[in-house]
Design brief:
Length: 557
């Protein structure tokens, strides 16, 4: 083969550096002519580095404590949390950068070891890896303050090993899941479970922060010691082992990390071939039976048989099916449902302990309105990249010349078929659970206003700020910079939605009691008016930008 015998044919051997240069070149080409994407990438990179610097300061500050046990707690639990984050978050939120999609190398005569090594080195190039390296470098400062220069040197080695571990576990797990999720039933079940897990990450963090305020952390020294001997905490506690006089622990932990990395890379290599082949065909499509009219009726779900057989009705039926059958879309719906219930509960049902008695904090219409403002914004932000879900399939709408307003109205209607019943249930449920049925009007009006204004904002973002999702067998993959773009667009959408929904909160806080009954019709009218205006303005924008939008959401090969 050309790669196996480079000297015989005068070809330079394929090295990991070649994969790194290839990734950088592909990234540069993907940004060419996309000024907004460059801006999002730079802005997201600065945000990532800001949090990385904050993590650096937190880790380094533990070196100022007199007790080395505090530094060990931070290194063990913080390091383990970072490894778990790299394990779970790519599956449920950020995805995995597939700039160098393994499927593109399927026809090249590359040895498996060369391919895995090159893709692994290329995965180390990016903002997430740099941010992780900067944040954990604070452990080097901490170890140096506790144990001198040699402890700092060992901690630096541990930081690099931790970076390799995080990238390896992320790639191995996502590649394995991509292989396993070829079955539609397994894929749908996994999407549900991962969406539930993603939705619980935030609530779990809130709960842990609340528990940390009244916790004696000295009780966790034993647990930190145990975590330090696992692959999750071993790389980040080696420097403190030197500072503690346990030099013998360093080679043992390095051996543990070497074995773990070898196993992860071996696991990745086993599933990489399947990822290169691509998805397995689901078999031949079944032909529709019956009269042409019956075939058209079969395209409409049973719950939408009442829809008119028009272009609008067909688009609503199609989008409704996609929101239920597409694993990516359905996971977003599940996340909205779980977070939409948990966050209001956390805000309105907080409790405190005083002299052994637990007393509940009484919620007010304003605090309930604030929590429901967040629920409405969260539901609407799901449409921030609605055309990205379609990808190249959006070409059918462009060729058919679907008017922009009809397109947007149908998409909003189909999405609302799932969201509006949930928001109604949350409104009525929280009103009775709080023991204040009179607040249902305020809750419902605020949710309706937040959802309507959020839709208006996100419709514009979905047209002006769309980004492509990759066509790959890995359902967790994203294109270069898409993770940053997704985060930044979501932030912009939520800030804009909050600003437009804020008048409902101000009115609740300042107006007398009659507002409790007036809020519902005002909020519904305000939200519906915002959606109508948003579809009117954005529809004209969509008519002008259809070809550009199709080009933007079509994955580049």
């Amino acid at each position: 083969m050309a790669v196996a015998e480079p000297a015989r044919q005068g070809v330079r051997p394929v090295t990991p550096a070649l994969f790194v240069r290839l990734k950088l070149r592909v990234m540069a080409n993907s940004f060419r002519g996309q000024a907004w994407r460059i801006g999002l990438f730079v802005g997201g990179g600065l945000v990532g580095l800001f949090f990385a610097g904050l993590g650096f300061l937190l880790f380094a500050a533990t070196g100022l404590a007199d007790d080395i046990g505090i530094a060990r707690l931070a290194a063990a639990f913080g390091g383990a949390g970072l490894v778990l984050g790299w394990l779970l978050l790519p599956l449920v939120f950020f995805g995995v950068d597939e700039t160098l999609d393994p499927a593109r190398f399927a026809l090249l005569p590359l040895p498996r070891r060369t391919l895995v090594g090159g893709l692994f080195m290329a995965a180390l190039v990016g903002v997430p890896a740099l941010a992780l390296l900067v944040a954990t470098s604070g452990l080097v400062v901490s170890a140096g303050l506790h144990g001198g220069w040699f402890a700092a040197l060992v901690a630096a080695v541990g930081v690099v090993a931790g970076l390799l571990l995080c990238v390896a576990v992320s790639r191995a797990v996502t590649s394995a899941f991509a292989t396993m999720l070829r079955s539609r039933r397994v894929r749908d079940l996994a999407a549900v479970l991962l969406a539930v897990l993603a939705a619980l990450l935030g609530p779990l963090q809130i709960a842990l922060i609340g528990a940390a305020e009244n916790t004696d952390w000295q009780r966790f020294t034993g647990a930190a010691e145990i975590i330090g001997w696992t692959p999750f905490g071993a790389p980040y506690t080696m420097g403190l082992d030197v500072a503690d006089g346990r030099l013998w622990a360093v080679p043992v932990k390095l051996a543990l990390l070497a074995v773990t990395l070898s196993l992860l890379l071996w696991w990745w290599s086993r599933s990489l071939e399947s990822a290169m082949v691509g998805a397995v065909s689901g078999g031949p499509a079944r032909a529709a039976k019956g009269e042409p009219g019956q075939a058209v009726d079969q395209l409409f779900p049973a719950s939408l048989r009442w829809m008119p057989r028009t272009r609008f009705g067909a688009l609503v039926a199609r989008e409704a099916r996609y929101w239920w059958r597409d694993a990516r879309r359905r996971s977003n719906l599940i996340t909205v449902a779980i977070v939409g219930i948990f966050v209001p509960a956390m805000i309105n049902f907080t409790s405190f302990e005083f002299n052994g008695d637990v007393s509940g904090l009484t919620a007010s219409p304003t605090t309930v309105g604030l929590s429901m403002l967040f629920v409405g914004m969260l539901a609407a932000v799901t449409l921030a990249n609605q055309f990205g879900f379609d990808g190249s399939a959006y070409a059918a709408n462009v060729v058919a010349g679907v008017p922009g307003r009809v397109e947007l109205q149908a998409r909003v209607a189909a999405f609302s078929l799932y969201i509006v019943p949930f928001l109604t249930l949350v409104t009525v449920g929280f009103g009775f659970v709080l023991g204040e049925p009179a607040w249902i009007g305020v809750i419902g009006g605020t949710v309706a206003a937040a959802y309507g204004t959020g839709l208006a904002v996100n419709l514009g973002i979905s047209v002006a700020g769309a980004y492509a999702l990759p066509e790959t067998s890995n359902p967790f993959a994203i294109n270069t910079g898409a993770g940053i773009a997704k985060s930044m667009l979501s932030l912009v959408a939520m800030v804009g939605s909050a600003a437009l929904g804020l008048p409902m909160i101000i009115a609740t806080a300042l107006l007398p009691d009659f507002w409790l009954w007036l809020a519902l019709p005002v909020g519904v009218a305000y939200g519906y008016g915002a959606v109508a205006l948003g579809t009117y303005i954005t529809g004209d924008m969509l008519d002008r930008r259809m070809p550009e939008l199709l080009q933007t959401v079509t994955p580049r090969r």
